[in-house]
């Protein structure tokens, strides 16, 4: 795994006022889930069902597919590693910048790797048995609509398109291609319960694909990889009458406002994103310096994104918080940039 | 994974009066752990520490080794898969009968396999880079003392000895070789919090070895494989002033008594075991038939052990329960055997 990955807060917790570095949405409407899991604690007294039958059946119903098209995994991360394993030593094209685990998983299982900035540049001569894409993508929030993905699936029937939808519930107006796995045997969709429900500590994700792909992945899947409480969390979430939406709506509006405000700061370039997180780029200083300044002087943690393949030393990712904290962050960011690149705070003469 | 593995109770729960099939000890002295984990539920709001630093440090202190000699895993099962992966395509000797996951993990990572009934039969011409042994062993409870293992380590410096101590806390008078990993770079010890604390649903285990082996395994380890509550469970257990022992003492005495009682039943052969579980063999009927009879007529579940490599159709494994239930089980077993092999219930003329 690449360094500084995830919200690894050990050792800096005492400095922290707000964490803009993680794109997990701290949804206030999901406390019921934690209460429920407390009542389910005795389930850890038995082995979890290695086949995750109850949750697979619920997922199949949700997406109008069969349980044979569903694999439950230890977070969506395990889905990437299982895919890389089941297709070891094949060629993978990764749309970059990307979540580092696609590349790490492929490297571990000796894939030949190709990196592309756009799906359209893949032509018949590109060696790519698998094509990996985040939708919306992490770290830049870029979103492809189903029509674009369907066009790719139809033009590339010999390639497996791996669509990581871990963040799709946090993306404005986004539509999942999950139900399309019945129609396209070359489509794999990976999803997570983590992001909208803010439970990355419990490790629960899933993968939807053609039964033949699921079988191939199951052959690589060690038993009991998903713990008993994680299964209960997934079951609870799927049984909810509706997804928490008011808090999310508000957060996405805040993300847009924050993007607009930051774009006004001299020396900063913002990549527009339809999600709660987005990329920015510093023009005259590094993300590492800004991160240090913001944490030590103001207690705000950002994600230095310079270690994402294809990004530079000035790139950082932030996830919008609530209005009050965002306003404090904007002021802190202006002040920090003034310290780090003072010449940019005045119009050039 | 082999079929009928673990206590897979889905679908038969309504028939069940007592479960003799799992060798997880239902320790009544561990309820405090479940209460503690309820208070720790908010930890699932953040990613677990991918390096498991707090737990590794506590384990290092416990075994008088360094944190660089410790790897925390998603149950001990993940430790087997990581080892098989890190040493893929090498030769493994497995002491049989054995927990099926050693073989499954090695097969998945294309090991050449050798099966031996005894460590002593391995000589310099046996192709074995790794040697796997359960201590005490599952399913037969066989125990090797440290002197035997040390002799093997010293006579086979070129071979990695993998000692699975998942059940060692449940074995009378057993001594762990865990602290010896500092002395023998060819020793790997795998342990679990699951068995004595009866929490197989939470998935937490660990592996102790030379730092160079730990590094090799870490390179194969996907991030966040161990969930946040599992880490908390491990930390809690290591902080306990003493291990729960009175209940265990009683259970081991019950296991001995049950072994003696069963050995008296005509048509049954019992393999003596120093643990809470042991193997028995039916001489004139199959374990599958006995299992069906015991479950359907009496509500007792046993582990048909005929699918362990090296065992036959008559083998089954049981784990002793409390005195009352054991007595009911003995009566049920006598009755079932009378039905299945009536000729054996009377002395031959």
UniProtKB/TrEMBL annotation, chains A, B:
InterPro entries: Aminotransferase_I/II_large (IPR004839), NHTrfase_class1_PyrdxlP-BS (IPR004838), PyrdxlP-dep_Trfase (IPR015424), PyrdxlP-dep_Trfase_major (IPR015421), PyrdxlP-dep_Trfase_small (IPR015422). Belongs to the class-I pyridoxal-phosphate-dependent aminotransferase family. Its cofactor is pyridoxal 5'-phosphate. Its EC number is 2.6.1.-. The keyword Transferase applies. This is Aminotransferase. Keywords: Aminotransferase, Pyridoxal phosphate, Transferase. It comes from Mangrovibacterium marinum. GO terms for molecular function: pyridoxal phosphate binding; transaminase activity. Residues 38-325 form the Aminotransferase class I/classII large domain.
